[in-house]
Design a protein that fits this description.
The protein is mainly alpha-helical and 486 residues long. The chain contains 23 helices and 2 strands. A two-stranded antiparallel sheet has the order 1-2. The relative contact order is 0.14.
């Protein structure tokens, strides 16, 4: 085993020297990275391809935001119980976990575009089943199919965007994924207050009807094409993305050489992930997603109305304010991520989310001891807005960006599936346990979430690298080299 590790380290260092980079392997710092500005312009094809991809992100957000405004209408018309509606809400996460398990393999075998197309077929089928349901089981089936599609989208969309965009704008373009998720969720709540639940489900079909035909007009990921040996199509796709007049040779050469190096390792299965050289990558990808989910994200998203009402604040004013602050935070995050960098944005976001949890916990503590007549309502309003605004600024979207950047293409499918699975498991655990925790201790629930956010600050400061302005190959080489035995 040590011989094999040594051989791979030599291959890595040989590739680094050949590609013109100097990375000091006994240190985590990068001494020199080559610049390849010749093919880094933003073209209409890159913009159009990204917009087509994030139609899936909007569908994702619409599905997450659907259950809250639809609840009263569904229960009244179909006569289902609270327990039956809880099954309907939670089965989305079950479907998404299944979709997450298959997402990497489908995207690796069939390509990123096909994976997005398959996901939309699941989503369209799910929305139609919900819209025309007359009984509880068809509602659940539709929600489950919708979850399967969302699990696929969670992987395919950010990976595709990261693989087609130039390095200096990759963060901003990839941040459109969580931006459209947030918009979809917020608009589902706002539109759901104006239309009935069947119409709201039919509105969820619109992004899929736009994306499915548009997928035929965007190029496949060049990195996937070179991985599967379709080199002519790879060069054509890269040239189309960078512009006919761009010199794609430096970028194309680096992608091909690095992919050839990875093929020599021949490790792409789930069981090959848990090796020393991949441990840092997995720890970063899984850790960021775990801190995002277990830090209370889905408790605040799914139960915002209940949180406001429990503290004596108007749920309507609070929910609308929360929707607006999320859109503002996500938009700012998308604009700043390539200017300020991933690490600073994550740290600021985590501190703000932690503060929001503490303020919310403090609100319920004041309520428990009957301190201040209006103070709990004011504090809970500030706490929820602080949490959602700061979380969407960085922690809500940047883990998806980093996941799409750090994994080499030979393990990207398996590693990405694992990260998405952890993400949806976290969503299910938090949404399932929130009510019980809140009954146990309303203040304690949010202090627990605050402690997890605080641990995320330390995790980010100690382990998460800055990936701004570097090619995917540069990022992956440096992290693998850092983990390899010396």
């Amino acid at each position: 085993m040590e011989e094999q590790d040594l051989e791979e380290v030599l291959l890595t260092r040989s590739f680094l020297l050949k590609s013109g980079e100097c990375i000091r392997c006994n240190s985590s710092s990068i001494v020199e990275l080559k610049d390849e500005g010749s093919s880094s312009s933003i073209t209409l094809v890159v913009v159009f391809s990204t917009l087509v991809a994030v139609c899936g992100s909007y569908c994702f957000g619409h599905a997450v935001g659907y259950s809250s405004p639809a609840e009263s209408g569904i229960r009244e018309e179909l006569g289902i119980t609270t327990a039956e509606y809880s099954v309907f809400s939670s089965i989305l996460s079950v479907g998404a976990m299944l979709g997450a398990l298959l997402s990497g393999r489908i995207a690796d075998l069939l390509g990123r575009r096909v994976a997005m197309g398959i996901s939309q077929i699941f989503c369209l089928s799910g929305w139609l089943a919900i819209a025309f349901s007359e009984v509880a089981w068809s509602l659940d089936l539709g929600r489950f199919l919708l979850g399967c599609g969302m699990g696929l989208l969670s992987f395919a969309v950010p990976i595709y965007i990261a693989e087609i965009t130039p390095k200096h704008v990759r963060g901003g373009f990839t941040a459109l994924n969580p931006l459209l998720m947030g918009f979809g969720q917020s608009l589902a709540f706002l539109i759901g207050s104006l239309v009935n639940w069947r119409t709201l489900a039919l509105i969820g079909i619109i992004p899929g009807l736009i994306q499915l035909p548009a997928l035929f007009f965007i190029p496949e990921s060049p990195r996937w094409l070179v991985k599967v040996g379709r080199e002519k199509e790879f060069e054509a796709a890269l040239s189309r993305l960078r512009g006919a007049s761009a010199d794609i040779f430096p970028e194309a050469n680096e992608i091909k050489e690095y992919t050839f190096f990875l093929k020599q390792i021949k490790e792409d299965g789930i069981f090959n992930l848990f090796q020393r050289k991949y441990m840092l990558l997995l720890t970063i990808g899984v850790g960021l997603m775990a801190f995002q989910r277990f830090g209370g994200l889905y408790a605040f998203l799914f139960y915002a109305s209940d949180i406001f009402e429990s503290a004596g604040f108007s749920s309507t004013i609070g929910s609308i304010s929360a929707a607006i602050i999320q859109m503002v935070g996500t938009s700012l995050g998308a604009l700043l991520v390539d200017k300020c960098g991933r690490r600073p944005m994550l740290l600021i976001s985590s501190v703000g989310a932690c503060t929001g949890c503490i303020l919310t916990g403090l609100a319920f503590f004041c309520q428990d001891i009957d301190f201040g007549q209006n103070l709990p309502a004011i504090l809970v309003f500030l706490g929820v807005l602080f949490y959602l605004g700061f979380l969407q600024l960085g922690l809500g979207g940047i883990p998806w960006i980093i996941m799409s950047e750090i994994f080499p293409i030979n393990i990207k499918g398996a590693a990405g599936s694992l990260v998405i699975l952890v993400s949806w498991m976290g969503s299910w655990v938090i949404s399932y346990t929130y009510s019980s925790l809140f009954e146990w201790s309303s203040a304690g629930t949010f202090l627990i979430y605050g402690c997890i956010c605080a641990a995320g600050i330390v995790f980010t400061a100690k382990l998460v690298p800055e990936t701004k302005g570097r090619t995917l190959e540069e990022i992956q080489e440096s992290l693998i080299c850092t983990c390899s035995p010396r």
